[in-house]
What does this fold into?
Amino acid sequence: MTVVMEAEELSGFLDSEFPQIAGDFVIEEVGERRIRVRLLVGHRHLRPGGTVSGPSMFSLADVAVYLALQAMVGPVSLAVTTNCSIDFMHKPAANTDLIAECRLLKLGRMLVVGDVQIFSEGGLEPVARASLTYSIPPKRA
Amino acid sequence: MTVVMEAEELSGFLDSEFPQIAGDFVIEEVGERRIRVRLLVGHRHLRPGGTVSGPSMFSLADVAVYLALQAMVGPVSLAVTTNCSIDFMHKPAANTDLIAECRLLKLGRMLVVGDVQIFSEGGLEPVARASLTYSIPPKRA
Amino acid sequence: MTVVMEAEELSGFLDSEFPQIAGDFVIEEVGERRIRVRLLVGHRHLRPGGTVSGPSMFSLADVAVYLALQAMVGPVSLAVTTNCSIDFMHKPAANTDLIAECRLLKLGRMLVVGDVQIFSEGGLEPVARASLTYSIPPKRA
Amino acid sequence: MTVVMEAEELSGFLDSEFPQIAGDFVIEEVGERRIRVRLLVGHRHLRPGGTVSGPSMFSLADVAVYLALQAMVGPVSLAVTTNCSIDFMHKPAANTDLIAECRLLKLGRMLVVGDVQIFSEGGLEPVARASLTYSIPPKRA
It folds into this structure.
């Protein structure tokens, strides 16, 4: 399978589907079953001490898998997250963007599984890892 | 074990620790190893169609376990989430508050495990379930 | 919805589908979206010290959700586990049967989510909790 | 950090700690924070149709992280699994050994997080992925 939506098109799709959050994310690189997404860390993502909040990391992982899926199967508005497991392993660097490296491990007709590692920009060890399942509803006849 | 911080005191603790988000949550009831927390759903929690976003549900589950833990062991600023597994099972009702029912299944010295079911207010079936682990760092001598 | 397969019929179904493991389990009670299943702990489930192994607890949780699903929707050979999250919270009692209390939190046409708490027989605190998703393949025309 | 126990020594450690299951596994390669472990698939791991059971895959993932941990920190009998999240993505090939590729994403003093991909031998796509947390109890003074 090959990529059917490149970064620019994906970015437009995100703007139209999720206007509330699209401005938080930059799609840095798209490949076959892979994507790199940046979270532009702003005040609303922070907790006391400047660390990035757990929900912000969850949100980044969720968006990354969603976009990796869209890149491979074309615009599918109805894909929904059904499960996420996330490990928070290290405290993110203060006031630093986060980078998600996402791979799709399964790209089925109904279920898609993505694996994400999240790094503080420039960091070598992941601050979090997540795996998410998206469900794609069957098309109506 | 008995509750060492009641709803009002917990609410003040949340205000002081997490001022960015404290206004989103109302502690409805505190019991032994149990808590009920409401997410006051506002525009920033919504996705197109009025449904509450996944990160908002994650945030509610995370806060609920954090507060249930604080209620039992007293103010512990350093407790951190190390793991969360969450299942999104039904679409939340549009523009409706969410209610988290949380129980602590393990209350260890170092690790605490909480179980959360999330309902749209008035709904009978949970829209999501989550389990979270918090780690409590050992006290320095 | 009501129960369509009671304990005896479920037990026969387990024997025919999974003869390798059916003898390890006893279905103790079946209700609407609920089941209680016992693991008859034998030598092969133990680790040094007499504690029950993690894979044995996983297996019990998996079987419990599978049977709860079958009880509600009738014999569905093709249901497959797609995800499991499990927390091991306390060491099980030595040489003691385990009891799984399972509830189905979602009973969809394609996805079923079950929640399981596992106790050492007679114990008050769960030794483990798990949530599992089963996928039911669409019927071919 | 460097490897403190190589494959042969690890294998002896597994024999002495878990004699019930040690014969099922072969340690194929050990590296810094990495290990490859083979499950010698036998009759007891199979389900009807020849497919490897879920509990067998869970067991392989669990052993792989345990051994990767031991390889890095030396023999630590008391390390216990506290959490596992596993996605079953494809049906394993019939009657074929499984290969686990494990990396440690976090190697803390108290908590260790490992990530595992499981392949049917010779397969290109993982049949399952798992992440596990081990807790290492603090040493008594």
